[in-house]
Specification:
Two copies of one chain form a homodimer. The first copy, chain A, is mainly β. Chain A contains two helices and nine strands; from the N terminus they run βββββαββββα. In chain A, a hairpin with a 5-residue loop joins strand 4 and strand 5. At the A-B interface, strand 4, strand 5 and helix 1 of A face strand 4, strand 5 and helix 1 of B.
Chain lengths: 159, 159
């Protein structure tokens, strides 16, 4: 088992753009989002695929299991998950010891930009870059699984 | 993607027992059983584990994706799936060109014995052994995912 400890923030300016070292087009769909587990399929640049099973979150922490699968399986399972699918371009932005992931959403979630950072411990200090806005780590509306079920992103979620 | 085409029968006598070539103790739990997909984790003799994602059934046919995973992950995900877990001993019973799987359930499903046979085509002829009883292929109560959610097996399901 892996453990995922993640904090998530709105993005309030474009300051991160000059710092991007890598980007990838992600498509991800949800086969399950019940209380026990979230089951996600994700393709990366339509070339690689993983299935990820995440347990229930306890605060910022949740169990996570991830397995590489054939890209064909990934594409088929994305179709199976429709319409609960998210499209986003993920940008890697290294700052100090941390690697921020800035996700620019597309499709029905266009306009939403979120920055995530994965931590080793829930109490690890996180120096916030000036382009990071309000923290939404514990706001379920910003969970990708929740977003996949929404028809769009209301304006009040963007500020 | 694999395709699963399966027929399932009650078992009305012990005639199969003399024909068993292999047996394994299976524990399987369900992380999701929604309309889109069933997500199952299964351990075999507490030594091997797989995660299996099955699409919605169309008649006897459903899409199936199966991936081997580390046994430790399998055990942890079974705990995550609790109490929606099934224990059974699976017996392989070759008859002619077909390999029957006779599942003797334990735990809260003790008393239930089901015989399954996997086919290449939905219309493939299946010569029925004399120990095979009523067909329950399309009776959702006998789906393992349904059984995992039940507290036991009522008498009327055993005949």
């Amino acid at each position: 088992m892996g453990i995922e400890i993640e904090r998530k923030f709105l993005v309030r300016s474009d300051g991160w753009k000059a710092l991007v070292t890598q980007r990838a087009a992600l498509r991800q769909g949800y086969l399950s989002t019940n209380a026990k587990a979230t089951v996600r399929v994700r393709t990366r640049d339509d070339a690689q695929a993983v299935v990820t099973i995440k347990g229930a979150a306890v605060g910022l922490v949740r169990a996570e299991y991830e397995y590489a699968i054939p890209i064909e399986d990934g594409r088929e399972m994305l179709a199976m998950a429709a319409p609960h699918v998210i499209e986003k371009v993920r940008h890697l932005v290294p700052i100090g010891d941390l690697i921020w992931e800035v996700d620019v959403f597309g499709g029905k979630h266009a306009g939403l930009v979120l920055a995530e950072v994965e931590l080793h411990a829930a109490d690890q200090p996180v120096p916030l870059p000036d382009w990071a806005g309000a923290e939404v780590s514990q706001d379920d509306r910003y969970a990708n699984a929740s977003l996949s079920r929404s028809d769009g992103v209301p304006d009040e979620m963007l500020v």
